Amino acid sequence: MSFESNETLLAFLPDGFAFELCSEGEAWWREAAQALEWGKLMTIDYGATIDELVSPERKDGTLRGYYHHHLTTDLLANPGEQDLTAHVNFTALITAGEKGGLETEKFETQAQFLTKIAAQGRYGKSIEQWSSSRARQFQTLTHPEHLGRSFRVLVQSRNGMA
Q1: How many domains does the structure of the chain reveal?
Q2: Is residue 1 part of a domain?
Q3: What pTM, to 2 d.p., does this model score?
Q4: Which listed residue, of 55, 122, 137, 154, carries a Cα 20 to 30 Å from 27's Cα?
């Protein structure tokens, strides 16, 4: 399901559902898209589409706290000592970029993106020739239980031929 406005979204969600909005991020992406005469805008971050963000298992939203690299649900427990973060709404960024005249080239998981790059041999050696340390680093970035599925890659472009 897609939502054209926040009012539609609010009417759909049950009472108590939490949802983070980042209108400043959407505005920045839209302005960057409009300013880009030729080239690409790219972001890699953890996030999801609007359909994924409003799923029942996310009824408490995506705002999270991390204290000493551990997830905490008490967001106000350690002011100034813990990181607060929320998932990117990639549907909003895609829409902002397309409204700014960009074409969406890629929207995929970090695992898909990095695996394609590695398969092209851009690191000078094939994956089979990597050191065990490099292979472990790659697995951390691409494994679905680590960063591979939760991080997404969005690439939008303008070819300058308008």
Answers
A1: 1
A2: no
A3: 0.78
A4: 55
